[in-house]
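Escalated from tier 1: adenosine-5'-triphosphate holo job.
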Amino acid sequence: MRDVQRIAIVDPADATREPLRNMLLGVESVWLEAECSRYEFFHDVIRQSQPDVAVVALDADHAKALLLIAQLAQDCPGMPILAVSGRGDGQSILQALRSGAKEFLTSPVVLEELLTALQRLHRGRLSSDGTPLNGAPKADSLVIAVAGARGGVGSTSLAVNIGCTLAQCPNVGVALIDLDLALGDADVALDLMPDYTLADVALNIERLDMTFLRRSLSKHSSGLSLLPHPVQMEDASLIREEHLQRVIGLLRASYTHLILDLSKGFNATDVTALRMADVILLVSQLELTSLRNTVRILLTLGADPALSDKVKVVLNRVGSDADIGLKKAEDTIGKPIFWQVPNDARSMIESRNAGVPLLQHAPRSKVQASIAGLTQALCGTAELPPTPTRRSRFFSFK
Ligand SMILES: Nc1ncnc2c1ncn2[C@@H]1O[C@H](COP(=O)(O)OP(=O)(O)OP(=O)(O)O)[C@@H](O)[C@H]1O
Ligand SMILES: [Mg+2]
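Tier 2 regenerated the structure:
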């Protein structure tokens, strides 16, 4: 699922475009980025959508289509073109390839042939070490799963505030999926009243396309996009592992960062999220239940090296009076603590109650400074705008 190919198609004939479009929508590793019914407009569509592959159907007007292929091949040398035509004779194939197409398929297109051609094009875009050639943008995004060692440990607070902080970086698109399907509250933390939820997406999974999926996410003023948990508790059971796999796979193609706020149930969707994540933040606290559960969770995840290598333990609410010592906690857990977020009840609880993230509610608080540091440590290259210092408050009107 890591390598979703973003595809744009042009075909002026509805009779051939629609079956091809439906076939592409059914392919899990494909994201239909754009669909166009005029050769004249396709160049602009490509410029705006920057797909990984362009599919050009030739039969509506061979001369125009071949000219378009030649122009695209010249202007976008890193983007392979797949030509499709009902005429599978040697002459037609040769013309398309000479114009600049990398692959040719005869229509009606057969699914297996389409998949093989797409795989060849995908391999052709990668160098021997698996990195994209020709400066093509890397389709992968960073998926961060946030799991908690017990209820109320601070998973949602961290997930939401990491998301909003990250959304401030240039050239970054961040989406948060609330996977606490029954009792999630990421929408409350952001004071959003979403029109669509994960349940709507799961119910329409077969005809999920870019427009529908993007419309299903609610955008917060910080720039963070949210796909919330279902409104009705009973709808939680509609969401199955394969739905989540497809949704995460598609969102990775469109966002640079995905944050998954898990439930404390460690159920099938949580496990899917853990498997698909690049990083697992295990949120704990310096008290007995959290530390005991942290050890149990690490033991369970430790049975699968693919999971255990991704886990980073984050201690939340550090600095409360009743804290167990840090050294003792580290010895108990048997793993270094990746990050410590201070206890800052006033800023955090007020921010949660107001439904306003820390970045907007208490941008100079120590807890926001710590979360900004955590975000930087996780995302490495992300250029975070500087956190305002306390001194700058003197000049502010707040
Ligand atoms: N660093 C912090 N300092 C002070 N209070 C905090 C901190 N982090 C979280 N809290 C508070 O702890 C409470 C629980 O936080 P949160 O809802 O994020 O936990 P959770 O793990 O998502 O809970 P749930 O198990 O319900 O999903 C909230 O009232 C929040 O304001
Ligand atoms: Mg929560």
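The first strand starts at residue 5 and ends at 10.
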